[in-house]
Design a protein that fits this description.
By secondary structure, the chain is an alpha/beta fold. It has a single domain, classed as UDP-N-acetylmuramoyl-L-alanine:D-glutamate ligase (3-Layer(aba) Sandwich). It has eight helices and nine strands. Bound molecules: pyridoxal-5'-phosphate (PLP). The site of pyridoxal-5'-phosphate has 19 residues, from strand 1, strand 2 and helix 7.
C-alpha cells in the first residue's frame, strides 16, 4: 500500500499494516508522506521524494508478487504520477483507492493539485474508491450521493463504495455504486456516538486484503465491514482526541 505516516498510530500506514496483517495478508508498506498529528488533528504534512517511491515500487515488484494495491494519503500529485507509471507497466493488479483529503479534525492531507491528480488519473485505474460522505461531496461536486457517485464512476473507476460513518443515527449505511447495476447497500450498527480515527484506512486496507486473497468485491466489503465493526467494539483510548480501532483483535481466517 501507499499511505502516510500518522505518528499517533491511529490512521495511515500503521492502520494499513495492522489491518492487512490481522486479515492474513503480508503488507508492503510504501510511505508517501510524513505528518505531524495527534489523536485530535493533523498539523503539518510533508511528502516523500517521488523518485525514491518509484525505486521502492520497482524494487518490490521485481521481487514479490503483488495481489492488490491500496492507496491512502498520497502526499502530492507527483507521487500519483509515479504510481500511474507503475500501473501502466503492471496492469491487472486490483487497486482500492481511499481518497484521503482531510483528517477527521479538519487538517489538510491533500492540496488542490493532488485532488485533481486523483480525480483525473488515479480513479480511472481503481477497482474501487472508498470516499466517506464528506469526500464524496467534494470529489463529486454535489450534495446528492447518487449523482456524485455517478460522476466518479464516469471518471473511469469500476465501483464507488460510499461510507456513511460520518453521518448520525444508530445505523451506518454503506453503498456500493457500480456501472449498469442498482446500488447495493449494507447496514452496519454504529458503535457509540463518537468518530474514530483511522476507520477509513482500516476499511479500505481490509477490502484490499480480501481482494488479494481472492474474495469477490462484495465478499471483501462484507468481511472488511465486520472486521472494522469488531475493531470499534474494543476501540482504544490512546490520547485526548478520537479513539482508535483495536486492529489487533483475534480474527478467524
Ligand atoms: N492517512 C493519514 C496519514 C492520516 O493522517 C489520516 C487521518 O488523519 C488518514 C489517512 C485518514 O484517516 P481516516 O481513516 O480516519 O479517514
Amino acid at each position: 500500500m501507499l499511505s502516510g505516516l500518522d505518528p499517533s498510530g491511529g490512521a495511515g500506514i500503521q492502520a494499513d499494516i495492522q489491518a492487512i496483517t490481522s486479515l492474513g495478508g503480508h503488507p508492503l508498506p510504501v510511505l508517501t508522506c510524513l505528518t505531524v498529528q495527534d489523536t485530535n488533528n493533523v498539523y503539518n504534512a510533508k511528502a516523500i521524494d517521488p523518485g525514491f517511491i518509484r525505486q521502492q515500487l520497482e524494487c518490490l515488484a521485481n521481487d514479490i508478487p503483488i495481489h492488490a494495491i491500496k492507496t491512502g494519503a498520497m502526499g502530492n500529485g507527483a507521487i500519483v504520477s509515479i504510481l500511474m507509471d507503475f500501473l501502466e507497466s503492471r496492469p491487472g493488479i486490483p487497486m482500492i483507492v481511499d481518497p484521503v483529503i482531510k483528517a477527521a479534525g479538519g487538517g489538510d492531507l491533500a492540496d488542490d493539485e493532488l485532488v485533481e491528480a486523483m480525480k483525473s488519473n488515479l480513479f480511472a485505474k481503481a477497482e474501487m474508491i472508498t470516499p466517506n460522505g464528506i469526500e464524496l461531496i467534494q470529489l463529486g461536486g454535489c450534495e446528492s450521493e447518487g449523482l456524485a457517485a455517478d460522476r466518479l464512476l464516469m471518471a473511469g473507476c469500476k465501483s464507488v463504495l460510499v461510507t456513511g460513518g460520518h453521518g448520525t443515527g444508530t445505523h451506518i449505511i454503506n453503498t456500493l455504486y457500480c456501472h449498469d447495476q442498482a446500488p447495493m447497500h449494507w447496514e452496519v450498527d454504529r458503535v457509540g456516538d463518537n468518530e474514530y480515527h483511522g476507520t477509513g484506512c482500516t476499511l479500505a486496507a481490509a477490502i484490499a486484503t480480501g481482494l488479494a486473497s481472492g474474495l469477490s468485491a462484495r465478499a471483501a466489503i462484507s468481511q472488511a465491514q465486520n472486521y472494522v465493526h469488531r475493531t470499534l467494539l474494543q476501540a482504544l483510548t490512546v490520547g485526548q482526541g478520537q479513539r482508535i480501532p483495536d486492529r489487533g483483535i483475534p480474527w478467524e481466517r
